């Protein structure tokens, strides 16, 4: 089980703050595609990603037991 945490607009679009992925391993890009297909979260492509509280770049591998946080850009003034 992979725990995916959604923040701000991503959580609003998905209608939940947490999604469970039932796979042994996957990649960040595959998680983003699944979020888009299942929840219509098309804005997941331009987010910061942390795996187990460490920021990562690119298409990192994710394994069972990991927690992935998807954090959209924040704007304000």
What do you see in this structure?
About 25% of the residues lie in helices and about 35% in strands. The strands form two sheets. It has a five-stranded mixed beta sheet. A two-stranded antiparallel sheet has the order 3-6. The chain has one domain (about 1-70): Ubiquitin-like (UB roll). A hairpin with a 2-residue loop joins strand 4 and strand 5 (about 55). The chain contains two helices and seven strands, in the order E-H-E-E-H-E-E-E-E. It has about 80 residues and is an alpha+beta fold.
Give a quick rundown of the structure.
The protein has 77 residues and is of the alpha+beta class. It has one domain: Beta-grasp domain (Ubiquitin-like (UB roll)), CATH 3.10.20.
List the helices and strands and how they pair.
Layout: E1 2-6, H1 8-14, E2 18-21, E3 25-27, H2 28-39, E4 48-51, E5 54-56, E6 61-63, E7 67-71
Parallel strand pairs: 1-7
Antiparallel strand pairs: 1-2, 3-6, 4-5, 4-7
